[in-house]
Amino acid sequence: MGVREVALSAASVFTAPYQPQDYLRLVNRLSSARQLRGVVRSVTPECSGSVTITFRPGRGWHAHEAGQYARIGVEIDGVRQWRSYSLSAPAGEDPAITVTAVGRVSSHLVQHTKVGDILFLAPPQGDFVLPTGPRPLLMLTAGSGITPVMSMIRTLVPRRPDADVVLIHSARTSQDALFRDELARLAAEHESLHVVHRYTGTDGRIDLTTPADLDRLCPDWRSRKAYVCGPAQLLDDATAMWHEHHAPDALSVERFETALLADGGSGGHVVFEKSDKEADGDGSTTLLELGEDAGVLMPHGCRMGICRSCLVPLRAGQVKDLRTGEIRADEGDLIQTCISAPCGPVHLDV
């Protein structure tokens, strides 16, 4: 038995019939047997309605790798809402997320988070991470897609003299470019980092339909392991480029969202049976969003139809896959709620 266990056993004489941990939880807001939590240590303004939120996680968190993401939960109007955010801090340091005020949860985090607040957490995950051995790297990012790549750069460049990183980042204007000043400082201090900013408001977007722009911006791009993160169009174009003009396995892609059909489903009334909640859907709002807005604790992960963590049994009715248009109507079918919308009345087993 360890020292901690001996101390707790001795203390239980004075705390019976309760356990010492029960009293510890009253004074330690990070202590929870059911839910991992973190306390906000700093909120740093970035640019264009963005902030970096650094937090200290409680027990149960495992150190993140550079490039990974984590699910973050926050209470809004009494309902706990969850979203996935890339971790922007370097590996080995307290985790941080950099959030732009787009959407309900992100806007709430940007506008209302303060030091001392409690965030609900899930452990870091994802395989958009640095290679195991030294090799030349190309980072191709746009907008908030720079967030996981910034974690990689902060981890690699100051610590590895053999690093060789080219970052090509697109933003609408220089004022919209996240981490611009820090990147300039890092590039000045380390010859291993070369930064190219592309301001689409004046320069236009990088054309990835041919290799011409990449040949000009990074002539040796074919010899580098490439990472791309940003809007769906950038990711689709880069994937096509590497398939046609190089090697697909030389490219790692991180997606924040997936393309959904514009017309959606027909809409309908959704009953969340186990939670005793109901909601009306318009046909383009996903079942996941409808449930969360109604106060249902919905399982989810990537929110893009990839990880399948959001699967919920269909009890009755039919739903439409907003990526493909496929209609699902078999009772007992496992429905991906993050990419499905109701088509008429729907009952879900959640």
UniProtKB/TrEMBL annotation:
<keyword id="KW-0560">Oxidoreductase</keyword>
<keyword id="KW-0479">Metal-binding</keyword>
<dbReference type="InterPro" id="IPR017927">
    <property type="entry name" value="FAD-bd_FR_type"/>
</dbReference>
<feature type="domain" description="FAD-binding FR-type">
    <location>
        <begin position="33"/>
        <end position="131"/>
    </location>
</feature>
<dbReference type="GO" id="GO:0016491">
    <property type="term" value="F:oxidoreductase activity"/>
</dbReference>
<keyword id="KW-0001">2Fe-2S</keyword>
<keyword id="KW-0411">Iron-sulfur</keyword>
<dbReference type="InterPro" id="IPR039261">
    <property type="entry name" value="FNR_nucleotide-bd"/>
</dbReference>
<dbReference type="GO" id="GO:0051537">
    <property type="term" value="F:2 iron, 2 sulfur cluster binding"/>
</dbReference>
<keyword id="KW-0408">Iron</keyword>
<dbReference type="Pfam" id="PF00175">
    <property type="entry name" value="NAD_binding_1"/>
</dbReference>
<protein>
    <submittedName>
        <fullName>Oxidoreductase</fullName>
    </submittedName>
</protein>
<keyword id="KW-0274">FAD</keyword>
<dbReference type="GO" id="GO:0046872">
    <property type="term" value="F:metal ion binding"/>
</dbReference>
<keyword id="KW-0285">Flavoprotein</keyword>
<dbReference type="InterPro" id="IPR050415">
    <property type="entry name" value="MRET"/>
</dbReference>
<feature type="domain" description="2Fe-2S ferredoxin-type">
    <location>
        <begin position="268"/>
        <end position="350"/>
    </location>
</feature>
<dbReference type="InterPro" id="IPR036010">
    <property type="entry name" value="2Fe-2S_ferredoxin-like_sf"/>
</dbReference>
<dbReference type="InterPro" id="IPR017938">
    <property type="entry name" value="Riboflavin_synthase-like_b-brl"/>
</dbReference>
<dbReference type="Pfam" id="PF00111">
    <property type="entry name" value="Fer2"/>
</dbReference>
<dbReference type="InterPro" id="IPR001433">
    <property type="entry name" value="OxRdtase_FAD/NAD-bd"/>
</dbReference>
<dbReference type="InterPro" id="IPR012675">
    <property type="entry name" value="Beta-grasp_dom_sf"/>
</dbReference>
<dbReference type="InterPro" id="IPR001041">
    <property type="entry name" value="2Fe-2S_ferredoxin-type"/>
</dbReference>
